[in-house]
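Dear support,

Our group has been running a series of protein-ligand predictions, and this particular one with magnesium ion is the one our PI (initials K.S.) wants archived with full inputs and outputs. We had some confusion internally about which version of the output was final, so please treat the block below as the authoritative record. The input we submitted was:
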Amino acid sequence: MEGVGVERSYNGAKYECLLFDMDDTLYPMSTGLNMACRKNIEEFMLHRLGIEETEVPRMCLELYREYGTTMAGLKDLGYEFDDDEFHAYVHGKLPYEALKPDPLLRNLLLSMPQRKIIFTNADKAHAAQVLSRLGLEDCFEGVICFETLNPQQQPPVASSVEHPNEEANETENNNEIQKMKHQILCKPSLAAMQAAIRIANVDPNKTIFFDDSTRNIASAKLAELHTVIVGSSNLVPGADHALNSIHNIKEALPQIWEGDEEHLDQVIQPNVETVEVLA
Ligand SMILES: [Mg+2]
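Confirmed final output from the archive:
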């Protein structure tokens, strides 16, 4: 019965959604983007934030490890800078030309019957650039990115009611604004994982999460996702599978293509033209 215009339903199938990290997961570390990005972050810390040159490399790495992104760590330490300015600085001059179209991965993605969503800590401009360079911009239902998890914070609306202790109230509001400015929601925090699951509206028990970061994998497992460490032949704590390259996905996880053969009547692959940022 399966033919043109009829796609397989995943009703009752083991997996309904595939959640992909992007950087160093959909393309290999050897492209050099990761190193270039770190160099740009270090330059930002040195020139824009005035951090001591000898401290920058160690601090950059330590904050990345502790907070998931160096940016989140810098904010938590109290450094003040504009999120968009930071992203433009570190991504604006990346060697994107190193990323080439990947028709093999494209065909693999398009043949998977599940929903497919990007979950990255990067900003939407970087995500769009990377997906476009890889020729994968129409392979995903949407992108959960920095802006999705960290929408622009608006200061609390001033109350029209007169407060007897207005000054104290204002201080409290200012403290709240400062606190909001410093908190960045990103992987590997469990809260970020749970937010992505909620935004994507998926059942974690029926979702596979792909990422090259061991910390993200451990956190995803706590969020009850099925997990695949990418870029490693060895399992890490919390990983259900290990994939040296995303290109090996069919050999390692044939179950992705094993749907419920009894349901053939429902079209399940949304045919979207553009990748949308989920919010
Ligand atoms: Mg990554």
